[in-house]
Amino acid sequence: MSARVEMMLPWERQPREGEEAYTAFLAYRDLGPKRTHEATRVHLGKRPGYLKPIERWSTLRDWRLRACAWDDHLQAGRDKVAAEEAAKWERRRLQALEEGWLLCQSLRARIAQLLTIPPETPAVATSEPDGEAPEVLAEAVATPEPAQATAARGPSRGNDLAVARLSKLVFELEWALLAQALPGPEDFDPMTATMDEFKAYMARYSRRVRPPPY
Q: Model pTM greater than 0.70?
């Protein structure tokens, strides 16, 4: 037997298979899993009497086995494409998780920076004699030092509000990232999990460390 015959795929034209018979097989093959001889005849546009040669060729050339091999070939191609697409999106998911985690660290650094801003000391009003009021007023108008001192102290209430909101955002974002990155309870196997995986699982599902609702 020649190398060409040994390498021939079942859905290809077989040795000494006539052109008409192979054309009929292609029509049968391409009808899909619900293929039948009668559907093949109709697809070819032949009269009812043409069903007999179709049945003869099908038996002689084992159409059913060859068509099943074609179905498996197509499915293997679809599975390969699906696996490649799944791997691509998994890489993107992991990249998004990593970028999200890095963003959380940047936000935490921003929170630490905001916490270094000293709180504003409220100004205390002092009573002055009535005779000195015009002089004090003139000094306040002439020199901008009180306004400069207040500006130097920085806004306290707005800073505290920004820190609180940013902390809440980081907290929720980190938990959302962990929920996506860590395995679910149905995927966790305590018999094969590493110590780090076990700690991460307990940190995620333990009631004591669940984030409180806002």
A: no
Query: If you write DSSP's letter for every residue of 15-70 in order, what string do you get?
Result: TT--HHHHHHHHHHHTT-TT--HHHHHHHHT--GGGHHHHHHHHHHHTHHHHHHHH
Q: Do residues 211 and 171 lie in contact, with contact meaning Cβ atoms separated by under 8 Å? A: yes
Give yes or no for a contact between 17 and 61, defined as CB atoms under 8 angstroms apart. yes
Residue 126: Cβ-neighbour burial (10 angstroms; 0-12, 13-18, 19+): exposed
103-125 residues labelled b (16+ CB within 10 A) or e (exposed): ebeebeeebeeeeeeeebeeeee
Question: What residues contact 31, with CB distance under 8 A and at least 6 apart?
Answer: 39, 40, 43
The CA distance from 24 to 43, in Å, is 9
Quote the radius of gyration of the chain (alpha carbons, Å): 39
pLDDT digits (tens, 9 = 90+) for 83-131: 999 999 999 988 988 998 898 888 888 888 888 877 666 555 555 555 5
Round to whole Å and give the CA distance between 175 and 181: 10
Give the tokens for residue 13.
């034209």
